[in-house]
Amino acid sequence: MDKILRINMSAEGGPKINSGPLGEYAGLGGRALTSAVISKEVPPLCHPLGEDNKLVIAPGLLSGSAAVMSGRLSVGCKSPLTGGIKEANAGGQASQVLARLGYAAIILEGCPKDDSLYKIAINKDGVKIGPGADLKMLGNYDVVEKIKADHGDKITCISIGPAGEMKMSAASIAVTDMELRPTRHAGRGGVGAVMGAKGVKVIVLDDSGMSMRSPKDPEAFKDANKRFVEGIKKHAVSGEGLPAFGTNVLTNVVNEAGAFPTNNFQTGQFEGASKISGETQAETETSRGGLATHPCHKGCIIQCSGTYMDKEGNYLTKQPEYETVWAHGANCGIDDLDAIAMMDRLDDDYGLDTIETGATIGVAMEAGLAEFGDAEAAIKLVKEIGKGTPLGRILGNGAAVTGKVFGIERVPVVKGQAMPAYDPRAVQGIAVTYATSTMGADHTAGYAVATNILKVGGDVDPLRPEGQVELSRNLQIATAAIDATGMCLFIAFPILDQPETFQALIDILNAFHGLSMTGDDVTALGKSILKQERAFNTAAGFSAKDDRVPEYFKKETLPPHDVTFQVKDEELDTLYNW
Amino acid sequence: MVSLRLILEADLISSFTSLLGHGFYLQAEVGCTIRELLCDQLGWDHNYIDHRIQTLFLDGCLVDDIDRAIVQDDSSLALSGAMPGLLGAALRKGGRYSPMRSEISYKPDLDPVSRSEGRVKLKLFNFPAREQGIVLLETGVCFQGKTLHSFFMNRGDGFWARCREIKIDAKEVVAEQLLAMNWEGREVFLQIRTMENY
Lengths: 578, 198
What we know:
Chain A is an alpha+beta fold. Chain A has helices spanning 30-41, 94-100, 140-151, 162-165, 191-197, 218-234, 236-245, 250-256, 278-287, 322-328, 337-350, 354-366, 375-387, 390-395, 399-405, 428-436, 451-454, 467-483, 492-497, 499-513, 519-539, 552-555, 569-572, and strands at residues 3-8, 16-20, 55-59, 73-78, 85-90, 103-109, 118-123, 126-131, 156-159, 173-175, 184-186, 200-205, 291-294, 305-309, 315-318, 413-414, 417-418. Chain B has a five-stranded mixed sheet. The chains are: A alpha+beta, B alpha+beta.
C-alpha cells in the first residue's frame, strides 16, 4: 500500500486521476488515515456536499495480508448528517482487494460541474473512469449485476444506491461480500451522500494478478497470526456465540436487561423480542436453507454473518444484524422477522443506514405517519425513501430532520445521528460514549478492549461517578486504534479477556511492518486519532453543548427499571482530559 | 394444567432453543442462592455455571455474584452465555465494565430469606438453551399455553412429519388436533422424548 489515488471530480474535461506516494500519511491506515486526511485537507466549515469536502476510502494497516479478520474498510469525510468528522466502516471484500492493488486510499475530491455520474474501475493495469449514466438510480443489487455482466465475477464493488444519488443524509456506501452481493455497508453519517455529491456511482476493483501483501518478518508474522487465530477461536463470544447466532444473539439479553429501546425509545422491553431473537433467526434461516454462519470477507474466522431466505427458500437478504433487527423491529414495535428482513433488503438496495432508517421510522410512527407495530406501513415508508418522494426525502435525511419537520420532541439523536440499539438510561456508560464520541451517537466508538493492559488514564475506580467517563475514554481511544488496522472490531472480545491474544495482535502489526510497537504505542495512536477528530469538530463549530444526550433522557424514566440518565454534564466534559 | 408429551426425531430438539427463551416454570425450593438452585437442585456443574453462564438476570436485574443473589417465590431467572460488544462486556457478571450499568444491577437484600417450596420462571438463551434445554425438556417443564401454541403454529410440515407421537393428557392425537387446542390462560406441562433415547 504505497500509493494514494486522488481523483479530482471537478477537473476541466472530466475527472482527473493523480496517483502518488503517501508522503505525510505514511504509516497510517484505516481510520487513522481517513481522519488525518479529513482534518488536514477539508475545511471544517465547508458544505458536506460541496467541492471542498473529500471522501477518503482506506483499507487498514493489515488489510490485504494473511492476517485474519483484517478486511475492514474505512470511509471518511465531513458528514452531511452530523456536520462533524466521520469515519464509517464496512466489511466485505473491498479492503483486501484495494490493499492488494497497492492503494492506501482512494480520495475523491471536488464535484462534477453537472449531474454526470461516473464509474471507476481499478485493476493491476491502472485506473479507468467512464460514464455511469446507464447505472443512474439503480439499486445496489442491479448495479452489481450490470457490473458483473461487463467485468466478470472476479471483482468487488463499492457503490451507492438511489439514496446516495439523491444525496440523502442517511445514505450508505455498499461493499460487496464474498458472494458479490452488496450487503456490507459503511452505514453511518451519510457517507453515501458525499459519494453521490462526487458523482461516483460505483468503484469496481479487480486484483487479478496481484499477490497478497507480504510481511517484513514472515516467520514472526505466521507465528503471531497462529496465536491470534487460537485466541479468537477459543473465546466463547468470537469462537462460538457470534458464529452460531450472529450479532442478533443480543436481542434476548438486551431485552431482558430492559435496555432494548422499544417504540421510539419509550420503553426498554419489547413483548415480541423472542420472535425476532438471534435464536429464532438462526432457526428460521437454517430451516429455510439459509446460513446462520458465514464470513463477510476472506480471512474472517468469526463468521458472524449469514443469509436469510424468504418463505419459499429464495435468497432475500444477508442475515440482519442486531442493530437492524432492533431498528426495524422493536424500535418500531414490529415482531415479524420476514418484514424486518425485507426492510434490510430495501436498505441495502437503496443504500441506507439501517440504524438511521429504523430510528427515523420510529420517529415517523410517533408523529402518526404509521402505527407502531404496522410492518406493512413501515415497509411502505422505506419504499418512499427509495422513490425519492417528498416524504421519502424527509425520511431519507434521518431522524433529526424527520422529528423537526413533524414537530416531535422525542428524537433519539446526538450530533444529529440516531442512537443505536441500547437505551442510554439503562446502560449509562454507553450513553457517555454516545454523548462524547466525535462521531455522534455511535455504539462502536467506545469498544471493549483491555484497558487494564493499556492503562489509559490509570486504573478506574468503579465506585466513583466519574468512573464511567474514564471507562468510555479508555474505550474510545482503544477503538480508534483498532479502526486503523483494518481489523474487525469483534476481535475486541478475545483481546479483552485474553492478554496473550492482545499481544498476538501487536506482534502481527510489528512483524508485518517491521515495527516494535507496544501497548503504549497503540494508546498513543488512538489518542492522536481522537485528538484530530475533536479538533476538526471544534473548528466545525461543535462545543461542549453538543456532547450531550437529548434532554428528555434526563427527565423521562425508562420502564421497566424506571431510570433516567444520571451522568452530569460536568463529568461528560472531562472525557477528553488526558 | 394440560399434559403434553412428544416423541420426536433427535435432531428436532434444537428447534426448541427459541422456545426456552420465552421462559418456563419449575417447582423449586426457593429462598436459596442462584448457585444452589442450579447446582444443588437442577444438578448443573459448578464449572459450567462459573464459566459458561456469563450473563444472568434475576427479576430483570443483572447479577454479579451468584452466591449472594437469592431466588424467591415467583422469581424470574434468565441465563445466557457471554455477549458480544461493549454492551456484552458491560452486562457480564462481575465484569470490569459492570459500573456502566449499575442502575440495572441486582442489589442483594440484606434481610434473611427463609426457604420454602415455590415456583421459579427460568429463561434460557443461546448456549444454555442448547446445552441444558434438552435435559429439562426430557424431565418436563411448564409453559404458558399461549406461548406454546404460538411456537407450534410456527412449525412447518417438516417438523410434524418427524414428530412420531403426540399425547395430550395421555391421549394420542395428531398434529392438527394439537394445533386446534385453545390453551389461552392455561399452563401446559411439556415433556419431550427423542427417538434415540425413548
